[in-house]
């Protein structure tokens, strides 16, 4: 296969080959001229014109080779390497050592199914690994035709919501084992900030929602519309009328979450249903706005128009719309067994670099050049 240079511009260093040539041309011979008294009366004959001569040819050749190899080392020559077609065995952390060893063969390349795919001979990664994502990654990185076997426990932790679809068939084996259980996340209370116009009677409904969300004993932040806006990490209920003020729109676009009543006009944008009441009727809509989110009630905040206001689960229903529950990551292994049919992705050709070999040649040439340059004996030029 034809070699390739990763840094071909480094071949400009070949211009340095002119230095040894100039040095050897300008170098004077070590032979000294001695005049005899008997020859002083003889007529001096004109010397014939001499052609440029290089002295010490072996030393010159070694120096030229040394500079050429240095330029080649800088250019980083590579050749396509033969793909590794050994069978692969990947073991999900949590599998016992005995079942994993039973499925391992002499010619297989065994790894943990973990980021970086560490060798199976090393310790098992203690953290939960994204099994589906790692299976997709190894499918995209391995050469076509490589047999792949994955040992998984019956229950997978860290699964995503989609079954992996690969470009090859995978031997998906369920063996005894248990993945580390994730630590239960402690949800932080939502602190709803309310900015309301003077005399609005529907403020008390959202104040009750804010009190249900917050930790016991904390006061609800309720102020007039002229009060400063809160931090963008806290949801804001803006109970006004008419068009949204520019200050509020900019606050939402910068990453804030706002809730406005039905009497307010929201900026144009895509609208999706965010929450429904017990009869399945939508009462809250979501409009993505810049980096933030804008929630808008579809009906006025009154029990006559929105009976869900008086239901005990209304605060929980509204909180689920604003901060959805995390997606479950636990699944049975047979339910997320990889499927086939995905097109093969781009797989870079493995390359074999020759810089280490060239470095050895450079070292040998340097030692030879030093020996020739310091030796007492010199080879005469032609």
UniProtKB/TrEMBL annotation:
It comes from the Bacteria. Residues 2-77 form the Aerotolerance regulator N-terminal domain. The keyword Transmembrane applies. The chain crosses the membrane at residues 57-75. Keywords: Membrane, Transmembrane, Transmembrane helix. InterPro entries: Aerotolerance_reg_N, Double_TM_dom. The keyword Transmembrane applies. Pfam families: BatA (PF07584). This is BatA domain-containing protein. It comes from Sphingomonas sanguinis. The lineage of its organism: Bacteria, Pseudomonadati, Pseudomonadota, Alphaproteobacteria, Sphingomonadales.
């Amino acid at each position: 296969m034809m070699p390739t240079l990763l840094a071909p511009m480094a071949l400009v260093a070949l211009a340095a080959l002119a230095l040894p040539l100039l040095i050897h041309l300008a170098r004077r011979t070590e032979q000294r001229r001695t005049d005899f008294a008997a020859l002083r009366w003889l007529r001096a004959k004109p010397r014939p014109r001499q052609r440029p001569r290089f002295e010490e040819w072996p030393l010159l050749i070694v120096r030229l080779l040394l500079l050429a190899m240095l330029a080649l080392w800088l250019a980083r020559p590579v050749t396509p390497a033969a793909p590794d077609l050994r069978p692969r065995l990947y073991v999900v952390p949590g599998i016992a050592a005995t079942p994993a060893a039973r499925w391992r063969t002499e010619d297989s390349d065994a790894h943990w199914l973990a980021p970086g795919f560490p060798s199976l001979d090393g310790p098992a990664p203690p953290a939960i690994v994204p099994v589906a994502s790692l299976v997709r990654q190894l499918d995209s990185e391995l050469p076509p035709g490589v047999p792949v076997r994955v040992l998984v426990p019956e229950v997978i932790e860290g699964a995503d919501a989609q079954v992996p679809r690969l470009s090859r068939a995978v031997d998906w084996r369920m063996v005894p084992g248990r993945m580390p259980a994730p630590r239960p996340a402690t949800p932080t209370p939502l602190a709803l900030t309310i900015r309301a116009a003077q005399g609005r009677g529907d403020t008390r409904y959202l104040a009750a929602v804010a009190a249900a969300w917050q930790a016991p004993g904390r006061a609800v932040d309720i102020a007039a519309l002229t009060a400063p806006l809160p931090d963008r990490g806290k949801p804001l209920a803006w109970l006004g009328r008419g068009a949204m003020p520019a200050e509020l729109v900019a606050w939402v676009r910068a990453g804030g979450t706002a809730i406005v009543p039905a009497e307010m006009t929201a900026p144009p944008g895509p609208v999706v249903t965010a929450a429904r009441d017990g009869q399945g009727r939508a009462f809250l809509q979501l409009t993505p706005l810049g980096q933030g989110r804008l929630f808008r009630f579809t009906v006025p905040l009154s029990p006559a128009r929105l009976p869900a206001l008086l239901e005990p689960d209304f605060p929980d229903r509204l909180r689920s719309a604003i901060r959805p529950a995390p997606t479950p990551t636990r699944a049975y292994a047979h339910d997320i067994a990889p499927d086939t049919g995905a097109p093969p992705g781009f797989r870079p050709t493995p390359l074999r670099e020759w810089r280490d070999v060239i470095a050895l040649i450079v070292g040998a040439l340097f030692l030879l050049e030093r020996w020739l340059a310091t030796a007492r004996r010199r080879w005469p030029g032609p």
